[in-house]
Each structure stands twice: as structure tokens, then as C-alpha cells.
Amino acid sequence: MRILFVLHNHPALQPGGTEAFALGLFRALRDRHGAEGLFLAGTTGALRERKPGTLLQAAGAAPDEMLVSLDNFDRFFLVQHDVHGLASLAPLVAKLRPDVIHLHHPLLFGLDAIDMLRGAAPDAAFVATLHDYFAICPREGQLLTAEGRLCAGPSPDGCRRCFPDRPALDFSLRALAVRDAFRAVDRLVAPSRFLRDRFVAAGWDAERFAVLPNAVPAAVPAPPRPLPPGGRRDRFAVFGNINRFKGTLVALGASARLSREGVAHSLALHGGTAWQSDAFLAEFTAALAAAPDALHRGAYGAPDAAARMADADWVVVPSVWWENAPLVILEAFRHGRPVICGGVGGMAEMVRDGVDGLHAPVGDPAGLAAAMRRAAEEPGLWDRLSAGVRPPPDMDDAARAHLGLYADALRRKGGRAPQRNPKNRRQPLGNRARPVAAPPG
Question: Which InterPro entries does the annotation name (predicted)?
Fold first, then answer.
């Protein structure tokens, strides 16, 4: 099977859950299931300087992982204004002749890329994974109000409150453009039932969705932290980028409250602060200074994750938005660590309160502090919850599930799923393309 993956970034440039999962899935399909293809990741000049004369350059040493320079993107309308650049990719797609095109995010490539991809490979099954709510929420796909409250879904009045300077017509045009573009997609993938239900509530067809959970690479679990006689499981850790939406300030507020109440504990923050505003960094610095038992350990790479996890008893996921299917929860479960998270969205779907973790109120430092205090002080709680942790899917599990979905999508199109070529030789390549449509408006 020949597969084309398309997404907005490569994790070698800027790590994130969507990018890490998509690349892991692509490599598992290639290395363990004989698939061929191309991992095509967008980038901007802020992350990688464009090479003269071409939009394309290698992402690294792998010949089938490439970057596409895509500046000039409109994040509200999800439009890439460099339509000529998009059109120049069509011959590459046509030459590849993919059996399956898998879109992992419309950012940078934009909605018109869907039309380009469909035109360049009309016989391919087209699959798109909705890793967040960008397609229905113009406020960075997080379904949060301007005041930072959870939003149940798009509405004319609600969206206007988030963007008071935009006319109401903009929201209608955006919704129509997104729905029209995604009609070219054969199957939609939701990593959680919650995300699927949000899209269905917004008017998307439930029959088009398949719920396939995310996965993390197989790894040897980090052993539990050795305890001295009478010791407690009171070491907490937050993993992921340091920012407002991931709840960094909420976690620091909870730790500061525990310290004032005399609750012995430690909180380690593992993650970088890249691309954050000066205003947020000032808040973060002040919150860190006010939490004497918290420590910022800085950014980390995949090889460091197990060692950092080994020093933690509990993984805290303090995100203030719905979250779809955070990889950090799967990574915590891979290492047998119970998770403390908000009791909403994909987090609540993944973490069973009182079984393999604890739920806490979202965006509430006092509520999170209460859950952390219980975790540190209740005898036997960690052992019981850790024993309830189920091993998460690994990348091979995800690859098999996606191959089944691809085969189903091909059958629905009237095609036949290609048989694996045991010698892994490339088939003759074609050359068919059609121009890209101009962006709406």
C-alpha cells in the first residue's frame, strides 16, 4: 500500500502530540507493515528557512519525510494564499500515485490543499484525522470562550463574542468552506468519542466517523520510584509545553496552595516555553516563584521521557480546555503512573476516576490541590490506581487499526486494497494532476 501523510509540522522542528503520533504511525506502517509513501509536513520560515527555487526540502535523513515551505496562511479561514505553491505540489502527488491520502491537520496547507490532493490522486481513498476542534472552532481549535470558559460548540452569538471585530458573515463563510472542503474526504477519524460527538453536535455526519485511539511507542516501563520506610507517593509531574492552555499556571497555583497548607510534595514541570508571549512568561515566572515546591525542569526529548517519568509518582494533566486524546496520558499509563486530570473531554474518557487516576475541576487550582493532597496522603491509593492502569495501544496496534480503516475506505470507493509487495519495490508511477481552485473570498 502506498500512503501519503499530510500535516502541518514535523516533530523534529516543533514537538507536539499530533506530529509525534502521525510520524510514529507513518513509520510503523512503513517499517512493520511494508507500506511505502511520503510524510509531507508543512513548515514556515520561523522554523526552517526556505530553500531557493523550491517549496520542498528534506526533513532529516529519511528520504520519505519532507518539508513544504508554507507561509502566507490565514488561520481564521484556514486558507493558504500561496495557491501557486500548492499547485506545484500536484505533480509530486500524482507521481506518487497514493492508494491512501491521510490528512492529519488542515493548518498551513489549508482547505484548498484538500481539493488539490483529491484532484492529483482521484482514485486514492482520502482519510482525515481530526486531532482537535480547529475545523469547527476558529479560536485555535480549543472550544474556549474569550473569558477562558469551556465552550460547548460553535454558535453565531458565541463566536461573535470571541471575535467582536469580525462580521457575522465571516463565521458562516468559514463553516461553509470547511464543510465543503471536507466533503472530499471519504472517512473521518476521531481519536476520542468525545471529539466525534462535538463534531456531530456541530452538524457533521456521524456515519463518516471512525473512532481510533492514539498510541505511543512500546517501551520498557519505568519502575516505581523506591520509597524509604514510611515514605509517601507525593511527587507530581507535568509533561508538555509550558503554556496557558495546558494549565501550567493552574498546576503552579495548586502547588503553591499545598505548600501554604504544609502538605509535603514536589511538582516537576517538564516542557519548553518556546513561542510564548512576554506577558505569559512574566505570569509563569511569578507563579513559579510563588510555588516553592515546584521546579521547572525544561524541555526534554523522547529519549529523556522514561528517566523523567521514573522520578514521578503521579502525572498531572492540568489542561484548561476539553483536550481530545493527550499522548501524555498514554505515556503515563505506559509507565504505570496514575493520572490526575480534568474530568472533561477526552481526558475524562481516557482516565477512569478512582480506577487509574483522579479527576479534578478544570481550571481550578484549589480543586486540583485537593486531588493532589488526596493522592499524597491517602494510604494505598497509588498502589490501587497504578494496579488499575491498562497498557495503552502501541504504534503497531495503531498501524493495524489504520490499515483496516484504509482497506474499508478503498472498498467503499470501489477499489481494492493493494497487496503488500514482499520485496518492497516501487510500482510504476503515473503523472496526473489538475489545478488548484482559488481560495474562497
Answer: Glyco_trans_4-like_N (IPR028098)
